[in-house]
Queue: 3 jobs
Job 1
Amino acid sequence: MITATAVDRHVEQLFDVLRRLHSALTEARIEYRVIGGMAIFLQISERNHDAARLTRDVDVAVDRKDLERITRAVEAFGFRYRHVAGVDMLVDAKEPKARSAVHLVFIGEKVRREYLEPVPDFSKATVTIEGILLAPVADLVRMKLTSFRLIDKVHLLDLDSVGLITPEIEQALPEALRSRLEQVRKEERQSTGAE
């Protein structure tokens, strides 16, 4: 039987992971930014809660030079560092599944060799009421346009639908990324018959 309780549990688990991670990194004075689907969810939720989509995990941008400190800092908060199949992650010590792990990406480095741009350096964070540091929308847009998978396109459309991709953000994009943004918008217009 399907229940809404499963969704509630997932949301509780995600936010528990996020709170513990924030506490660990803050206590150790380690700079970070929440990125990916969780950051998109929180940014959109602030503007229009009904337009926000859940995500399955937490992605965080950190500085590679802090990796050893991160590994030590998170242990007391129930995480263990793992490097699996080329991916750096923090898994819950109680339930060490890669799918539900905190995935780490490193500022100034490309996540994949073929990506157009590296992960942006730390910009001024958007800070939630709880003090959690999110990548600003401009950085999220750049990262989503760089990875450019189907989920990234959906996230871009979601950001655009609530007015978070401003003309200033768009104008600051390099031509290759601006072209991808227009492609996403064009595909959306075609799929909805608006073109």
Job 2
Amino acid sequence: MNCYGGKELAESFRTVRKNTVQVARELPEDKYGYRVFAEGRSVGELLAHMAGSVEWPYRFHAVEHKSSFEGIDFGSVIQRAKAEEKQPRSKEQVLELLRSSGEKWAGYLEGLSDEFLAERVQMPPGATPATKSRFEMILGVKEHEMHHRGQLMLIERLLGIVPHLTREMQERFAAAGIKI
């Protein structure tokens, strides 16, 4: 039996998404249009991208139960995702999208068996490695979100906001009498 299965994946993803929602809450709505550079995603687009980033893996693993990338038109998948993240949304709509998509994904993860997570999936031709376990692919969804949350936390710094995880660490150190 695996010590890290569906329940742990769900709990871990919920923690990551909770922190993403906290960052989204702390960023003022008037900064949701902020872009670090002209070609980059705005804060709102980046948050919508993160909210939507669970949809394709959900369809791949839960709905279609694919075992390879054969027949997937990545150009269409990417274009649909880009169009979706550009939809105008209020801060509250973005927060709700983050909450609902996150819970849908985490709820799915909770029920995954060790056998399912161990299944091998054939990667696209030329990819290295040629196969990955579903576990590794599913873990990648969380890694993707953490990557983008790091970008958002840097944006918070650029806007003069100390990220909540930094504040919490500073409070723990101060309570323990540790100067940083």
Job 3
Amino acid sequence: MSLELRGVSRRYPNGAVGALDVDLLVESGSFVALFGPSGSGKTSQLHMLGLLQRPDTGEVWIDGERVDGLSESAAAKVRRSKLGFVFQSSSLLRLVSARENVDVSMRLTGGRGGDAKERVEAALASVGMAERMDHRPDEMSGGEQQRVSIARALVHEPKYLLADEPTGELDTVTGAGILQMLRDIADTGTTVVMATHDPAAIDFVDTAYFVESGSLHLPDRDELGLWLTEGTEFGT
């Protein structure tokens, strides 16, 4: 079981390059990071893995099935059954509780059933929000809101969790807590792929790629460390 990009390229009308002949294989159960500055193409590559964008050329494969040519309805079915998404902004429904936010997500993925209440509560408990599940987003810290967004992504038990800058709006300490949570999720068997420019993430992932001008590189840790601290525009 795996996620895979094969020779994928994508360009935008404004001339920006999201991917340039990218090959990426993400093995089941791993925690993979795509590092890169803003505009490098890391989010585009993550979104193609998640069927949120289509490549201009190349192929996208999930669990041995080619999926880049699926109709939108078929692609949506794959997303609901296999993929969970976490974004930089938690994007929670502001007027309802954490419990209701996660419940809405489960309804949208077709997961309602006799055990719905238990599954919602278990998802929130798994991210440390058991005591806060009846609180609204305006009663939570930024880190707590991001934990709810992770619970929302996990409640339908996806094989793959795709996270786009999940620590981008958090302070260093809170961000480290989210990274550790993603590490723990990967350790329980859910594959995690994260786009990030957070240098701290290097200490939590199994494999770290560097994305630059749409191209994907697999540096060694020392080389990536130099890019993160000296040779890139991270944080600008």
